[in-house]
Amino acid sequence: MSKVTALEQAVAKIPDGATLMIGGFMGVGSPHRLIDELVRQGRKDLTIIANDTARPGVDIGKLIRAGAVKRLVASHIGLNPETQKQMIDGQIEVELVPQGTLAERIRAGGAGLGGVLTATGVGTTVAEGKQTIDVKGKTFLVEEPLRADFALISAWRADYYGNLSYELTARNFNPVMALAADTVIAEAGEIVPVGLIPPDQVETVSVVVDHLVARSN
Amino acid sequence: MDEKTIIAKRVAQELKDGNLVNLGIGLPTLVTKYLPAGIQVFFQSENGVIGMQPLPEPGVAADALTDAGGTPTSIIPGAGAFDSVTSFCLIRGGHLDVTVLGGLQVDEAGQLANWMVPGKMVPGMGGAMDLVSGAKRVIVAMTHTAKGAPKILKKCNLPLTSVRRVDLVVTELAVIQPTDEGLVLLEVADGVTVEQVVAATEARLIVPATVPTMQLAA
Predict the structure, then answer these.
(1) Which residue segment(s) compose the domain that B12 sits in?
(2) Which of A104, A121, A172 comes nearest B83 by C-beta?
């Protein structure tokens, strides 16, 4: 059963105000076409969960520039001054999360865990308002799981069922986000016949992928 | 020799054969240029690779192979790639031997502030909090002062990166080791006196009877 969906149709499923996880690290391994189409369709009031917002006007930076983002959960916005400006001006609410904690919170969301215990952030501003738990004499912060309505992810290669494999540093947050959203839309560099991706190279299994879009026509 | 070169050369001496090392963006990345001969070090890039090395020549970049700043990079034969969860398992799980990070402030408790200046600069912590909390050894590589103002203070007044005490601070003037007793002045740079280091430092420094000069390869 092929999951290939037309770009416009796949993105039209995302309503205004939705919470989206978007894969990528400084734009590398981001679903470029899905992001462009979100901007084109004029989606707004989005909550974005992503490692960063790339650079001004690039990838997730396009959503920032378009004023489509209401809330952002990210680890780093230092290379996008437009995000920082919108944050300081109060246009976007930003929750900054240590990168490892972000990855583990998403993992917890996708794995059905009630949260994460981590030493990262203990005693810093990140710990404000959060519970701590002592385990074997060491203090840990309780960090809650993250889930999204949609995950927009990018893969190197997909088969028509939606099995995905990734390439080098374009992998980053994509595999874990694919497990942590109600609906997963994957954009792939190429879509190949079922059976061509060896089972050992399937990193995201097709059962979690709902829609598949090719990176280029 | 400019101050960044001095710092990078001195930090490079701290890396040992077989170490897994993570370098922060900016000054710390210069360390790769001055590795001691005959040792093999595995550099991790937090966006998902071990075995990173500089691009061997222009024109061989790949879209899917970048460093943590999004700049094209290269990898050695024997490198490994992985997702962000595994990357931070390595960092937080005690697998990372050394992290070298830039700093805005370090204080007498050896605590580091390096991720934000409230109201001015809010880049986010990226992986810095995880690195300082999780690496076996944390080395801060930073200039001793900023526009003449000391960065090594009695108490950090910027938000901390971690409550963990860092292991070594390397500047263009000195090598300083945070300990239970306080900050110990281990070395001074060539041509720099102990008095000059003390004058450029707000924190109290513990000065041993003899303070050797930093030895750097030419």
Answers:
(1) 3-206
(2) A172
